[in-house]
Write a structure and sequence with these properties.
The chain is of the alpha+beta class and about 140 residues long. The chain starts with a helix and ends with a strand. The strands form two sheets. Strands 2, 4, 5, 8, 9 and 10 form a six-stranded mixed beta sheet that branches. The protein has a four-stranded antiparallel beta sheet with strand order 1-3-7-6. About 20% of the residues lie in helices and about 40% in strands. It holds the Pfam family Unc5_NetrinR_N.
Length: about 140
């Protein structure tokens, strides 16, 4: 039946749309981590700081124990995300950091340790960093 073949052809070889898509993908690279969060400790009343930096990202944020970490509303806290352009390469880097307090770690009753990962996002897609565990150091 000729109609069946036509349908097949359009499914298998969308010539114009695929090449346009590939061109777009070449200009927008996936983000690349320049710095990933590492395992750390909360010591007494000093919160643990996790840092993350990525190139080619529109946004970088932390997810802890599966939930996105929102920016605390206190006025004194620095912004979670900072953007800057590398003067040598012209590549835009996005940096994010979060503080994890002792209370947060002690109030977390999951099966595993308190863990955070960094997500770097661009219009091309998103990548996840290695997970970083946060422990409370012995008193």
């Amino acid at each position: 039946e000729p109609n069946g073949y036509l349908l097949e052809d359009t499914l298998h070889s969308p010539t114009s749309s695929s090449s346009d898509g590939e061109l777009l993908h070449q200009t927008v690279p996936l983000p690349v981590f320049l710095e990933e969060p590492t395992d750390t400790y909360v010591i007494k009343n000093k919160p643990a700081t996790l840092q993350c930096r990525a190139a080619h990202a529109l946004q970088v944020y932390f997810r802890c124990n599966g939930a996105r970490k929102q920016h605390p509303s206190s006025v004194n806290s620095p912004p979670m995300q900072q953007d800057f352009v590398d003067p040598q390469t012209g590549v835009r880097n996005v940096e994010a950091s979060i503080n994890i307090t002792r209370n947060e770690v002690e109030e977390y009753f999951g099966k595993d340790k308190f863990k955070c990962e960094c997500i770097a996002w661009s219009s091309r897609g998103q990548i996840r960093s290695q997970p970083a565990a946060v422990d409370v150091a012995c008193k």
